[in-house]
Amino acid sequence: MRTLAAIVLICTATAPQAHPHIFIDTGLTAIVDDAGALQAVKVTWAYDAFYSLLITEDYGLDPDGNAVLTPDEEAQLRGFDMQWIEGFDGDLVARLDGGSLELSRPRDVTLVMREGRLVTTHVRDVAGTPAMAGHILSMKPFDPTYYTSYDVTMNVRVQGLEGCAIVRNLPDLDAGMQQLQGALTKLGRDQDAIEEGFPEVGEAFATEVEITCADR
C-alpha cells in the first residue's frame, strides 16, 4: 500500500492537491476478558519518517536531527495525535457480525520514536462489551478523504481468547485507483482540494481485518 500510495501521488500529479500525504503502518489488538467479551481495541500507528520529522520539528524537538528522542522529548509529544475533534471516529470502523460497534475516545496513550518513526498506541473501549466467541469482528482503518493512508502491516491479534482466525481482506487497488482518479478529475486545475473538500475515496483503499473466534 505504501508503494501504491506513492504511485497515486505520481500518477495524479497533474490533479490539484493529489493525496495521500501521511502514511501510517497500523496494528490492531482485540482485547477480550475472561468471560469472552470484547472489552477494547488497541490501535498502533507508526508514522512515516518524513511526517515524523515534520512533527518533531514543529514541536522544536530533536535539534541535532539524529531522529532519536529522549524520554522527556517523547513525553512532550505523547498525545499529539489524540486531540480529536467532535465527530472524528479515529479513522477506524469496527463491526461485529456486520453490526456497527461504538468505540470510546482514546485512552492509555503511548509514544516512542523508533528508527526515525513516531509510533503511538491508544486503546478504545467497546460499548456493550459483546461476546467474541462464535462471532466475526471486522475492523477497517481508513481516512475517508484518503489524506492519510493506513497500511495494516503490523501485528493483528486477539488478547485473552484462543482459537481465533485472522484474515486480512485486501482492497481492489485497480478499482480504488479508478475511483480516486475520477474524483480528482472533477476538480478543476484552479480548485484547491482542501477548500473544495477531499473526495471520500479512502475506504476503496482500505484493508479490512476479520477475526473469527470459535464458539465456546
Automatic annotation (TrEMBL):
Protein's organism: Pseudosulfitobacter pseudonitzschiae
Protein name: Polyphosphate kinase
GO molecular function: kinase activity
High-level lineage: Bacteria, Pseudomonadati, Pseudomonadota, Alphaproteobacteria, Rhodobacterales
Keyword entries, A-Z: Kinase, Transferase
InterPro entries xref list: DUF1007
Keyword Transferase assigned: yes
